[in-house]
Amino acid sequence: MPTSRPIRLALSVAAVLIGIVAWEAAIPAGTRKEAWDLPVYWQIAYPVMVAGSFVLGILGPAHPVRLGLLVGLGQGVWSLIVTALQKGIPNLLPLGLIMFAILSLPCIAAAWVGGWLGRRIGR
After folding, report:
1. Please, are residues 80 and 26 in contact by the beta-carbon 8 Å criterion?
2. 10 Å Cβ neighbour count for 108?
């Protein structure tokens, strides 16, 4: 089920935005903590990212792994930009990048399952 370029672009932008919004929504105003330090990230924001990846996989079954990866990368890049602007380059940057890569794996898996389901539905 091939998708057109504008649809792939829209799905990719949506994937990045899911990661960014989940990260920012988990941080209460005025706190200097990172989102993954807070319970609301693990209880609400992260499951929303995984579920969003699944839905994006259904909507774009041709390249679901890319969409799941973009959810995690969007969040990681956004976090790095915000942290660098507020505090400078973090000294645990390599560890943070590894953590974001690990956090992307369930999103990739969910998008892959969604893509499989989307291909089955599209038959």
Report:
1. no
2. 21
Total tally of structural domains belonging to the chain: 1
Q: How far is CA 43 from CA 35, 47, 56, 81, in A?
A: 11, 7, 21, 24
- N- to C-terminal Cα separation, the chain: 8
Q: With the CA atoms of 51, 107, 16 and 66 taken in that order, what torsion angle do they form, in degrees rounded to the nearest 10?
A: -120
106 CB-near residues (< 8 Å, 6+ apart): 50, 53
Q: In terms of DSSP H, where are the helices of 3-92?
A: 5-25, 39-40, 46-59, 64-87
Band of residue 33 on the pLDDT scale cut at 50, 70, 90: confident
13 lies in which domain range? 5-122
Contact between 73 and 97 under an 8 Å Cβ cutoff? The reply is no
pLDDT in tens, 53-109: 999 999 988 889 999 999 999 999 999 998 888 888 888 888 988 999 999 999 999
- Token pair belonging to 26: 């988990």
pTM: 0.89
